[in-house]
């Protein structure tokens, strides 16, 4: 899924979402106000700089997003002679910050009412966000509190922003949530986020603190929950807590008047009205709580949920952001009966729902975009997701569970209390969670050729994801990658549909049995087959998305190619009971159908016709991130087209309100049928019932102790070891001996971020120590003898026996990683120099850590042993296991390794096929390959095929493959490669006799 909007910054989303703010005019304190305290006069006293020095600095989502700033002399300056001026043209987000020096003491703003500034209005009608930095070690590790004002005027105007108007940011915090209280005693500066989508300029002057402190800011009142469900006839208890910013007792009394208000529950019939006052006298300690009780009344009528608002009026302290809402649980209705068949429960619930409620179920929003959590109930949202890098603060299992439980609690305030289904891209483990087990990316799993291991990796992922309260995983990717220039190549198990199908055991690891009976377990999640269909077949240069070259482009195919290569894995996924399917961003152009390229989200023939019709898919179809926006026409047309094409739930991260309104309008206008809506909602509700969410909507954290556990990491380590493909091993250099002195070098030897790749903690991933794990260097040190490490090979090399050079790619995801979009298939100049230095000085092993094959032929003659390590994830010790012979090399190439970029695309089965290494190539250190009569093996393999003895057939073919590789060595010609690769395809399709025929051809072609 595309995650451009989720690249982390200090201004994520604030420019997109309406935020509370205001202009204060009243003093609010007895006696004269203290004199204003200047923060910035913009006369040059604060330079343009960056941390750790004090200064003003700019930032933005893209290179052209940061604004340009200058200190400009102006005769109309409100204060002094100069003002801060700037211009901007922001597509993502951008703004500027004044941070106090990280090494200097923080400032105390607590004696003042707020902060004010002069702003030269342009009457743009846009919001300008103002943020302050509270507490923490320094300005980049502080809590962020935000408000805004609207540029709806011209000329200079003084904007006053009372501290009482600032709210804690829920969409992004750079730290782990210090105390969620605006203390004002340790302030590290401020930031301004400028409007997006328009070119603009601004001028600003005279930032200062003003007014006397608002007593209400010293204390705040909170409730233990915004929604309090209670069974009919029970008593709801709402705990009201007083807190102070300095944890000291309050100096003046605080009162909280409460009264039940008008909701859907009837006073006197459904509950006993309650009202009164809670008093916290002066001297009351911070943290003191009082309780409000509301008694509900029981009757014999089956009912949907009913609400009782509890209004709170606070004097002397800051009131809660939300007045709590008591909800009398729905009861007695058939859909709530877990003993009924799911189809009957779905039919009963669907028959009670309004069109608006159905539209809500078809809507999925990004959790960070729901700035007002009341929207979950107000719009009857069916789903939330975390995009790549969209994580709670702190990023811990407990925080994930608490966050999602909070969202689920809001859904309990809806009429039928339909739980949310929360989704996340856990594409190689629970990769958004710091400390989770990060597995090899799919290309490495494909290299293992081990379906049972693939299943176990899926089980590890499911266990860790579900333990944080998430029941839905947007995985696995069933793309058949046909061009290594594609930035998503590593998301594919390989280039052969037969290999992809064999790895679909991962679906059982995620979901359990195909009939869905295991989905309610605390260690299983709903899986997603993506991206339907042919996303791996897009042509280079066909993309029109930003600077992408391949991703989201056009797949031009014959009907036979479509069926044989790209559709084949989806039938297997449907047969395995996969719960959801996600269409691709890409377009499909079927040769001869006369339609030309059509976006997959608009292809009713493929989604309704092939997937749901011919294949019999009974789950639901979830769109990709904002994919509806890529369809032609206005928004109503886009919504109508995608829903009528068969998309059941729309991932509309920031436009959930607009989508719900548009869909409802299209149904009322008759352009989307109610039957189509009912079909979509039935499919969604079916999976929610199967997941057990109606009975257990909240996180079951009983499995949280297993997250990142030794047992899970052992599975990952085994997967890493089995994914390593030994391409060359001259002189039997591998395995290494513990007695050898090893010189380790290279950019990827000691970098957990690089070896994990994209989709790790954030969407694009990043270099460095981003999560817990073992780097390849650390694994080598644990496994071997004396190790010398020098990243750039600058340390002396004398006295070492063998070099291990770990090079390759840095992280990327999706089209950002497309070749030609800032990426190449060659090693960087630094990596090339490192290889040359080490391999020129001693015998050497080169490991490529990458999401795809790299062009290394020009240095192959200098390299004694070459290993494709792919993107192993957090368990680098698995690489060391095969380097030192603890496990043998058994991995095989899941994709063809090209000689040059000019050969691309190149795949098994091509008429012209002359790669550096063929598909299926993989040397072993297990046993020496013994020459044997291939004709004899061929007869035995044919017999195994007739008897459907798969185990024996695979053993025979593998034995023959090793014999062929032993004879071929590094003299790999087209005459060898073509039959060799086709033999591996035959093996995966169960044609063992044919595989031996092909291997015999390769053997005879070898010199």
Automatic annotation (TrEMBL):
It comes from Streptomyces bauhiniae. It comes from the Bacteria. The keyword Lipid biosynthesis does not apply. It is an enzyme of class 3 (hydrolase). GO terms for molecular function: beta-glucosidase activity; cellulase activity. InterPro entries: CalX-like_sf (IPR038081), Calx_beta (IPR003644), CBM11 (IPR005087), Cellulose_Degrad_GH3 (IPR051915), Galactose-bd-like_sf (IPR008979), GH (IPR017853), Glyco_hydro_3_C (IPR002772), Glyco_hydro_3_C_sf (IPR036881). Residues 266-288 are annotated as: Disordered. This is beta-glucosidase.
